[in-house]
Request: fold
Amino acid sequence: MKLTMASSPHNHSQKSVSTLMITVMCACIPGILTQAYFFGFGVLIQLIIALVTATLVEAVILKLRNKPILSTLNDGSAWLTAVLLAISIPPLAPWWITVIGIVFAIGMVKQLYGGLGFNIFNPAMGAYVLLLISFPVQMTSWIPVEQLLGAPIALTDQFSLIFTHTNSAGLTLDNVRTSIDGTTMATPLDAVKTAVSQSFTVSEAMKGAQFSDYAGIGWQWVNVAYLLGGIYLIKTKVINWHIPVSLIATLAICSAIGYIVSPGTQAGSMFHLFSGATMLGAFFIATDPVSACTTNKGRLIFGAAIGLLIYLIRHFGGYPDAVAFAVLLMNMAVPLIEHYTQPRTYGHGAKK
Amino acid sequence: MSQLKALMKEGVWGNNPALVQLLGLCPLLAVSSTVTNALGLGIATLLVLVGSNVTVSLVREWVPKETRIPVFVMIIAAFVTIIQLLMNAYTFGLYQSLGIFIPLIVTNCAIIGRAEAFASKNNALLSAWDGIMMGLGFAMVLLVLGAMREVLGQGTLFDGANLLLGEWATLLRIELFTFDSQFLVAILPPGAFLGLGLLIAGKNVIDEQIKAKAITVDTPEKAPRARVTSLT
Reply:
C-alpha cells in the first residue's frame, strides 16, 4: 500500500469536471431508484425541484459575479449538489424545504466562497444541516417504507403533499405518517435511539415492524444500492478508495467495540453500516473532491475521523443521524490534516 | 469641527466597532435575536462607552501607564453597574431578557479598546464624541442584525418593545408575515454569524463601489493632452 504520491511527470486522466460529476450522478441512480421503490416517488419530485432551483440559483449568482453562465453550469457541480441534497431530505418534505436548501447550498456555501473549487464545506451537507436545525420537524418526517403503510400514497397525493402540505383527502403529512393504531413509524436509527433512552435494549427495539434482520427494512437496501454505486465509482477511478474504506472500517470497528462492551445499549456494526446515510456519506459525500483531503494519507485520516464522529454522534448526540455533521466538522479540519500529511517533494526535505 | 466630522465617519462607518474592528462580538451575536434586545443592549453599550470614555479622558494625566488597564476596567465596571441598576429599576422585563449580557458589557472589547486607543490620548470633549459615535455604530449594527434575525426567524419587528419603552410601545409591534414553522436558524447562534458575515460582506461591497466611483471621477481630471502628434 503506497501512500506517497509519485513525482511528476503525471499522466492526465482525460476526465473533465463535467464527466466526473455526471459519472457520480449516474452512480446515484441505483440508490435513487431503490429509495423511490421503498419510499415512494417523492424523491423524484424533490429531485426535479432541486435540479430546477439549482440551475436558476447558479445562473443568477454567476450573472451577479460576472462569470460565464453556460460553461460553468455545464460542469454539473450544481446539479450534483442538487441530487445529493434531494436524496438526503425526507421524500415528502414541503417543496420550500428543498428550495431553501438549494439556495443556501449554491448561494452561500458554494458561490460566496468563490464557486466550485473554493468552497471549504460540502454544499449539500451545509444546506442539510441548515435545514435540519431550522426545520427539525419537517426534516425528520420520513414516511415509513411503503409496505408498512396501510395504504400506499398515490402519486398525485405525493404531489399535493409536497406542494400544498395536504393530500386530496385533506390529510397532512403527519396524518399520513401515522398508522391506523395512532403510532408514527420512526426511522430505524431514531427508533433505536428512543428505545435506548427509554431503557429498552437494542434487540427489543429491533423487534419493531420497521426492522429486518440487520437494519431497517428498505433502508438496508437503499444502503446496498449506494454501496454498489460507490464501488462503480472506485472502479471507474472517479473517487479513490481511501476515504470510503477508512470511514466504513472505522465505523464498523467502533460499533463492534461498542457492541461487545455493551450489547444492550449499542447496535452492532451491520446496523450502523446499513442504516441512515452511511453508504451515501461514505462514497458520495465524504469523497467530494473539493472539500475533502487530497493527499492519500490525509484521506485515510479524514475518512477515519468521519467514521469515528458518525459513531459518536449517533450514540451520544441529539440527532439520529450524523453523516452531515461529521462531514462538516472534518471539512473544517482538512487544512490541518493536509498540513501534516503533505507529501515530500522529490529532492526536498529529506527525512531527518 | 472637521475632527468631529472625521470621528463621526470613523465610528459609524469607516472604523465601525462591529463591522471593521470586529470587537464586542459576543454580546452582538448573542442578544441580537430581536430588535428590542438589540436596541436595549445597544443603548446600554452606548451609555457605558460615553461614560467610560469621558472618565478615562479626565483621569488620563493621573493614571500611571503601568496600571492603566485595571483602572480602565474599574471605571467601565462602575458604569456598567450603574446601567445595570438603572435597567433593573426601569426596564425590568428587558433586564431579565438580556440577562448575563448586561454585566458582560464590562468585557466588551469595543469599550476598553476605545478607552485605550482614544480616550487615554484625547480631551474629554473629543472622547465623549468618539464614545457617542462608536456606540452609535455598534448599536446600528446590532439593530440591523436584530431586525434581520427577527424578520427571518419570527416574521415580526419590535416584538416586546414594551419591555424597553413602556406600555405604549406594544403598538410598535409589526407582524410582517406568519409561518407554519419558524426559520429557527435565524434565531439560533448560527443565524447571528451568518447575518454578521453578510453585513460585513455588504459593507465591503459598498466600500468597493465608493472606491470604484472615486477612481472614475478622478480619471477625466487628468491634464488633457494639448498637442497631438500622430493621428493614428
